[in-house]
Every structure is written in structure tokens, then in C-alpha cells.
From TrEMBL:
Name of the molecule in the record: DUF6473 domain-containing protein
Matches recorded under InterPro entries: DUF6473
Domain of life: Bacteria
Chain ranges of the DUF6473 domain: 1-270
Amino acid sequence: MGVMGSGGSALDYDFCRYGESRVRFRGPARDLDGDYVAFAGGTDTFGLFVPVPFPDLIEEEIGLACVNLGVVNAGPGLFLNDPAARASVREAKATVLQMMGAQNLTNAHYSVHPRRNDRFLRASDALVSLFPEIDFTEFHYTRHMLSALEYVSPHRFRMVLHDLRSTWEQHMTRLIAAAGGPVILLRFATGESPGETDDALARDPGLVDGPMVARLAQKAFALVDVEDLRDRDTTWGKVHRAHEVAAARECLGPEAHERAAEALVGPLRAALAR
């Protein structure tokens, strides 16, 4: 298990779609006609480069279908705007909702791609007025764009940050309310909560601070914290092509997925017993 040649086959994610969704999810596809647990989230829930992601590990443990709705670089808006994904969460017996970062969502200052949420599409008139010295046509990704804004003016960046955090809370609250069963929040934490802007983009979940998590946790069945091991995982246990080494280093590895599964099984059983 590990690096493959640049011309070899990487991990087969067995992509599938549910309903008429245009979003590709990690398979194999599960039967949504029976009882199941939904797992909505971003790259960590999807399990990029990991042969057996934590939803699959949990399925083996609890004996109930676990539907992996994780999407690489997804923000919460993806699940609100995709009817099939929203319906999958609504019909689930329980939902595990990963705390995704706040940078990859459409807000009052900029728009993102509806399915590839890390892709920056356009700046609003408000953002152009706020940063007249910036040429927004140079940016293709949200992280690059936000890092540039913070570098140019930390003071003006805080205005954008405030809106992103407010929009994130609204989206996550709507997702919890839309779920038909109890919701367990999952946070892969890189350490202490970020300050106003200090390394906020570099931490997970991006731009999400402690008070935001605390407010959201009051609306969920449970909050599960899992230590983020990406700094120690390097590429051990990950399946990737030779040119994907840098990307693989940034992703969680099998150990983190095993820890997530272990931490979630108990709360999930309690939620399903309600």
C-alpha cells in the first residue's frame, strides 16, 4: 500500500450518484430504501487516498448501511443546494455531520462552484469595493484568494471573515434542522481554536473557532472531537500516484480514520436507540 507510478492506477473510489444528483459520491452505492446512517462532510469524510474510510469501518461495526456523502473540499452549501444529498440526510436514521471549513461557501463577498466548492468563481461588487487594489481574475481557489486578502489588509479581511463565519453557522444550522434523525457533529481538530485571523486558514476546520463550535453543538445530539493526525501521518497507508505525494501529506491517514470510527460508534448507537 502506498505510492504508485505516475502511469498506474490510484485508489478506486467506485464513484456513484444518488437520485438525480450531479455530485459524485464515494461508493459502492448503498441502498437508500432501507435504514441507513448518512455521513455528510468534506475531504476527511470522503477519505481521499484512504482505502477504508471511517464510514465503512463504522458500517462493519454497527451492521447498518453507512452512506458516505463526503465530497472533496465540500462546504456545507453543497448539501443544502443538492436535492438528492439533502434528501439522503433527511431520510437517514442518523447523520454524522463533519465540521467543514468556512472558506468554501458562497457568501455576500464571493461565489464558489456549486460542486467543487474550493473553486473561486467571482467576487461580489462589495468585495471589489472593499479591495479595489486586488485583481480577482487572478484567483481560482478560495484559499489562495483569502490568503491574499489577509496579506493586503488584515483589518479589511476581518470584515470578510465575519461574513464567512456568520454564513457558515447559518448553513450548518440549516443542515442540522433538515436532518430527519439525530445529528452527531464530527470535528477533526488540529489543536487550539484559531484566533481572529492567526493561521485560521491553516487549521481545521478552516476559519471555524471555538465559540462557533459551541453554539452549533447545542443544536446537535452530540459533538465528537477527533485529534487531527495529518501532520504525523505523512503518506503512510495512503494510496496515491507519484505526483500526488504533496496532496496525500495534507490528508488524514488510516490511523485517523480508525480513531474517528472508534469515537463515533458509541454516540451513533445511542442516537439510533432513541
